[in-house]
Amino acid sequence: MINVIKSLFFALFGMSSLGWLSILLIITLYVGPSPDGFLLSFIESNLINSEDVEQLGYTFSELAYEFYEYIALLNIFLLIVTIIFCICWSIASHFLNIDAPGKAKIYFIHWFIFSGIFVASLFGITSFFVIWGRSFEVADYLSGVGQTLLLILPIIFYFIVYYLGVLLGTARFARSSVLFANKLPGNL
Amino acid sequence: MNKFKLFFILFIFFYSSLLASDEYCGPKFEIISDLKEIKKKEDKKNPVFVYFDGSLSMQGFVKDQPGQKNLYRDVIDDLQQISENVGSKTYYHKFGSTIEPIKENEIARVTKPLFYDCAGSVESCNNQETRLELAFKAANANKDATYIIVTDLFLSSKQLVGSTLSSLTSPLKSVLKNGNSIGVVGVMSSFNGTIYDIPSKAGGTLKYSEAKKRPFYIIIVGNEKNINLVKKNLKEQHFIDQEDQYKFSLITSSPILKNLNQDKSIKENYVTGISNRDSVKLEYIENNFPIFNFNAVQSDKIKFKIKNNEIIVEGSNGISNYQINEHLWTSKEQACKKISEESWKKTKFEKISKWSSSEDQFELNTFEHVALKKLFRGMRYFYLANIYAEKPGNSSEEIFKEWSIRDSEAEDFKDQNPVEFKTLNLSKIIGILNSVAEDAFEKTLVASIALNFDLE
């Protein structure tokens, strides 16, 4: 049991190495980014269809509040799913039936499928927010480039967060099932 | 008593809050209230002046042609009665190179060949040319009267250029500017005579006597009501058989019947293509301005339709071009209570909708240039459109085209020995009338509407 708790601690530590960025982003979006800051100008120039906004007689700052909430909500969902998947694997890795040398490598397939499901879940969430989610009216503000970025960037980021989590959180005897996890020092 | 008071106060409170919720909460905009009144003439009967073309070419209409129906004689016989239906007193004239009055008891002579003969020398005769401009000039004398001109409209090209043309068009322009119209009834009738002044390629003129049928024209100058009355009488009394060929066109500088806002003619079903039909509510605000309130979705194809017979004068050329003066406002606030004047933002779209017009109706395809899919959901939109008739139509040119022949084609046409002879430069003459009508036409507001909707 102690090993499981240790694993969870390591998993959270691994995730937090990059995950703090996500939390910071969520908080910043709820507070409202600085009007002259990088975030606002990044959103305005890369995610928003500025031409449509301007044609409708608005400036982005007038519509930004709802949009920030929308991006923050998307990140909350992605973060929760990432944490759940990472913790699940970290716990499950302790219960893998590895009773012979080299057997852990067989579980690489399990990890690969599990990670595939995780990526698919991330894609499902981003797609729901960006393309299919009719209830997210602010999604109309997105430009074509913005839609693509919102579909791909969060998947890459949260997969790295997840990977860092499982890298450290996987049970020591099952490390061979996770890509490059066996390269970690033995005393970790 | 106290309970009654309490009930009364509560009733007033709820009723007033109910009324308050129905208050107009759209953006501020200018309602075009200087609606051009469509001039309605008094029903008082005014004189009718009838002008008969006395040129020799007309003689063939009064001679029987075996196997052909003579509509000319029948029509002329009844014209006296039709004129009396239209006006108070009828005055008859004959025109050729000059205008001569005809006594009432001599009218019967019009249907006899003798009327078109001339005993004197050719130079002194009044039957050698058709100076239609004299009749048109006379038609400008009394703007309340109705003028009926019976002619074969056989005008050579030289009569349709320069000073002769301007003497033909300037009285017509005045007629149209006075709010009157010109009705042209073309009737194909039997013909047994000679057609003169057919231009030859060599430069002179030719005659033709083999035609068995030929159109004549009744040009009616006056108010639309009288023109339509004359046309109706002629149609009911003479153009009964299927083989009776006749054509009609009303050329007017005011082909618009009315502004639909004037008498609140616009109804809820004028707007179509809204999937949430139950949400549509039409309200009229000041100056009879209609606002359609509803909920829309991005896939809606909202159309505003008007039946042509509601706005266009029957039988007229109609409208060939409309102008849509349109604006769109948006508001982030959707609830009427929360919307203030500042909530509305005027969009920068210049072209939003596209109009189309068919024989039966005018259609404004709203959000055709700027699709609803391009607009953001979760907002309220206020679309304002002023629909103007910008240019009158010219469908009459097409109507009369088959009876027309150009100067350059006249000799070849004659050489084919046609049984049915065409009218020289008819399309040109109708075109001239149309262009005069276009000159006298003023841009007219047909309807103003607003669409106030939430986009879901």
Word description of this protein:
The complex is a heterodimer of chains A (188) and B (456). Chain A is an all-alpha fold. In chain A, 70% of the residues lie in helices and 0% in strands. Chain A is elongated and about 70 Å long. The model of chain A has no long low-confidence stretch (mean pLDDT 86). Chain B is α+β, with helices and mostly antiparallel strands. Chain B contains 9 helices and 21 strands. Chain B has a 7-stranded mixed beta sheet, with helices on both faces. Chain B has a 6-stranded mixed beta sheet with strand order 11-12-21-18-14-15. Chains A and B meet through helix 3 and helix 4 of A and loops of B.
SSE topology sketch:
The complex is a heterodimer of chains A (188) and B (456).
Chain A: H1 2-31, H2 38-47, H3 50-55, H4 60-92, H5 107-132, H6 144-169
Helix pairs in contact in A: 1-4, 1-6, 4-5, 4-6, 5-6
Chain B: H1 2-21, E1 48-53, H2 71-86, E2 90-95, E3 99-102, H3 132-138, E4 146-151, H4 162-177, E5 181-190, E6 195-199, E7 205-208, E8 213-222, H5 224-237, E9 246-252, E10 271-272, E11 281-285, E12 289-296, E13 303-307, H6 308-311, E14 319-331, E15 344-346, E16 354-357, E17 361-365, E18 379-392, H7 395-400, E19 404-405, H8 407-415, E20 423-424, H9 426-440, E21 444-455
Helix pairs in contact in B: 2-5, 3-4, 4-9
